[in-house]
Amino acid sequence: MSRFDSIRLVGLLVLFPCAWQSTVGFSQRTRSAAPAEATASVPWQTPARLHRGLGRVTAGTLTINPEGIAFAGRGTPALRWSFSEIQSLDISPHALVLTSYQNRHHHEPGDRQYHFQLQSGLSPRLAAEMARRLEKPARNEDPDPRATPFATIPAKHEKTFGGTNGELRFHVDGIDFVTGAAKDARAWRWADIQTIANPDPYHFRVGGYRGTYEFELKQPMSSHLFDRLWDSLYARDLNLSYAAKEADHDK
Q: How far apart are CA 178 and CA 157, in angstroms?
């Protein structure tokens, strides 16, 4: 797919806003092909603290299993959410923010959030599995450094004041920004990404449903790599195969 064709495709997506629906469809189509993860057979538990606001904290046990997430607090009713009942997740190694579809108390606006501090750290594998099972946009701050990328570029996440140095890693399941800076690493599945942009060889933007990252690239991004990323995000939703296109190109 050429960049000219890509621009035309963006226009179609703007006129017909189906990107989110088709991206969810892609996540569902690939679900059965995903490798088995730790949560597929063994529930994961950790002591945790639920922060309820106004300084109220409840100690208990958080459990993650293939069906959903549960919290058993001391002296309080157990809380359980199936993944279908969870609107979004913010995942980091020792913290989890769960947004449910429940209304807030006292007719306050917005949906109800639960903030957990975890004693044991979530592994990158478990974090990726949770995002996959959610099948909705999530924010994952714990990319798996062992994932095999087909391309890497050293980059700086641009901020209003300063920035964070790290490495962009592109793989078949999405895009990772790996860095040692706390809370600045990200793992985006394709289902978490709304748009990507490469205005010039030294800049790259990931527009996620849960936030946008601007990167300054320390090495230029080739047009071939950007076209591959573009196809990974959009062409699969149109039942196009990057591998098939590459095979035709090589003939």
A: 11
> What are the φ/ψ torsions at residue 80 (nearest 5 degrees)?
-140, 140
Q: Could you tell me whether strands 111-118 and 79-82 are parallel, antiparallel, or unpaired per DSSP bridges? A: unpaired
Query: What count of Cα atoms within 13 Å lies in the side-chain half-sphere of residue 72?
Result: 6
The per-residue pLDDT for range 58-108, each reduced to its tens digit, is 999 999 999 999 999 988 889 999 999 999 999 999 999 999 987 655 555
Q: What is the pLDDT of residues 22-64, one digit of tens each?
A: 333 333 333 333 343 434 345 899 999 999 877 789 999 999 9
Tokens 């990328």 correspond to what residue?
149
C-alpha span between 144 and 211 (Å, rounded): 20
Q: What is the C-alpha separation between 160 and 61, in angstroms, rounded?
A: 38
- What are the structural domains of the chain? 3-33+143-250 (2.30.29.30), 38-140 (2.30.29.30)
Say what the pTM is: 0.72
